């Protein structure tokens, strides 16, 4: 709980002082979303990771591995929330990104 509070404060400060299209803010949103997910706070995790994905897509190309990572994290949050249809869609999109950027035998491609 203390870690989440600190991360929320960090994101709040970054939102006040950085444009939403900054990688640092997206990294913080992603990390906060992962913490929420690990604590079982799935509604918060999904909202935060959706915000991260929307932001990161404004400044990175569609096949960037950071987008793939965010898709993977968001897919896992939806999977934990028992929304298999949405999770599957996100995992497929993640796989598409990873296949375009990595070799077919790369562990991150195989994991999807």
Which helices and strands, and how do they pair?
Blueprint: H1 2-17, H2 23-38, H3 42-56, H4 65-80, H5 84-101, H6 107-111
Helix pairs in contact: 1-2, 2-3, 2-4, 3-4, 4-5
Secondary structure category: mainly alpha
User: Regions with pLDDT < 50 over 5+ consecutive residues?
Assistant: none
- Morphology: globular
Helix fraction?
over 70%
The helix-strand sequence is HHHHHH
The overall average pLDDT, rounded, is: 91
Number of strands: 0
Radius of gyration based on Cα positions: 14 Å
Q: Tell me the span between the first and last alpha carbons.
A: 30 Å
- Percent range for β-strand residues: under 5%
Task: Please give the count of helices.
Answer: 6
For the biggest sheet, the summary is: none
Can you describe what's shown?
- The structure is a single chain.
- The longest helix is centred in the last third of the chain and has 18 residues, at 84-101.
- This protein starts with a helix and ends with a helix.
- It is globular, with a radius of gyration of 14 Å.
- The protein is 77% helix and 0% strand.
- It has 112 residues and is mainly alpha-helical.
Using brief descriptors, characterize the structure shown.
112 residues, mainly alpha
